[in-house]
Structure formats: structure tokens, C-alpha cells
Amino acid sequence: MIRGATGSVGSGLGEWLLQRVTALYIGAFALYLLFRLIAAPVSDYVAWKSWFAAGGIRISFALFVASLLIHSWIGMRSVFMDYVKPGWLRFAVSLLTATGLLLLAVWAADVLIQGGR
Known about the structure:
It is a single chain. The chain is mostly helical and 117 residues long. The protein has helices at 13-39, 45-52, 55-83, 87-114; strands spanning 3-4, 7-8. The protein is built from 4 helices and 2 strands; from the N terminus they run ββαααα.
């Protein structure tokens, strides 16, 4: 394998692929939601809650949230690595971003768990 100044040429292939796969799922799920809510609008909270209680919908939402968090982390990490030069600042913004995404993950898990009740 050819080695560049910062490592092997193929070292970012996994992140690149994960970014593309999560983008495809995010886009596909967003289109599904758009067409589903246009075709059969949810009229009130009780209808929304009963629709959301279905196992397949909650799993799909969980995959959507996981994809969104993974996609966000990879994208922001790439931006930080490319444009934030001081190591201490890169660490600080990465830590803040990771903390925020982790808090969003906990909140989303709570919503998904409580959503069926």
C-alpha cells in the first residue's frame, strides 16, 4: 500500500464508506417519512403514539438517529482535523461535540423507549 505523509492512503476508506451508507439511510428514511405523512397524515397525539408504538417504526427511527449521530460525528471530526490546527483546541471542540452527540443519543433513546408507553 502507498503511504502518504499522514498515513496509508486507504486509512479513511472505512469512514468514507460509513459516511455514505449513513447518508443513504438518512435520505431514504426522510423520504419515507415525507411520503408516509403526506399519504396518511397523523391527526392527533393518540394517532401519532399508536403509529410510533409499532416495533418496525421505532427500530427505523432508532436506526435513523444512530445514522444521524454517526454521520455527524464523522463529518465534524473531519472538519476539525482539517481546519482546527492547535491540538488543544481540536481536542476541546471534539470533546464538546462528542458530549453533545452523546447527550442527544441518550435523549433519543429515552424518547424511543418511552414512545411505546
